[in-house]
Amino acid sequence: MKQDAELRQALLAAIVKVIEEHADELTSLDQAIGDGDHGINMKRGFEAVAADAATLTVKPWPDFLKGVGMTLVMKVGGASGPLFGTLFMTLGKELPPEPTAVDLVKAFRAAIAAVQSRGKAEAGHKTMLDVLIPVAEQLEGGNLELDALSAKAHAASEATKPLKAIRGRASFLGDRSIGHMDPGARSSALMIGAVANVLKEVA
Ligand code: ADP
Ligand code: MG
Fold this sequence. Notes:
Blueprint: H1 2-21, H2 23-33, H3 38-51, H4 53-57, H5 61-75, H6 80-94, H7 101-119, H8 129-140, H9 146-158, H10 183-202
The structure holds adenosine-5'-diphosphate and magnesium ion.
């Protein structure tokens, strides 16, 4: 159990760090096709999670993830707060206290479905889902290799550039959203990359 708490601590710290390091970049991406607050929103949310890290990380996986999700809903704001919050809360709801890799893959798909139900977006709408869905598909295909997952997430975020936004604020731009990376896709890829790096160390 102590080992798990250390892993939760390491995962959280890695996500907080990568979001802080890329906050300006996320904001610039959102300046191009949104309102320029995605970096600020994510940084505020994950700093609030970090402030609660000592309390959160000693909880078992389901409660830990639900706690992270609830803080994100309250603190991130914008469209992405409730959506990332839903992602983490659903992971918490779906995972057993001692999850296996199979449990994780299933819970990740359920969490994506919850995000889709909340945001009414599909693959190809130029949102965070355009990273989350391809990563889920790769996992479901049985490729759990961590570098490959990270590479998939980053390639998928790049692949949002030519898409026209159908959901979210960027959709107001219509064709002018084409040619820019979706900020939420980028933050999703950064978080998945950070998680993969930590898991590589313990694997
Ligand atoms: P806001 O758009 O309210 O300013 P943020 O800037 O924090 O919120 O987040 C924008 C990101 O949220 C987008 O780049 C996109 O990835 C994601 N997003 C917006 N709407 C949706 C939706 N309906 N479904 C999934 N993701 C969405
Ligand atoms: Mg924004």
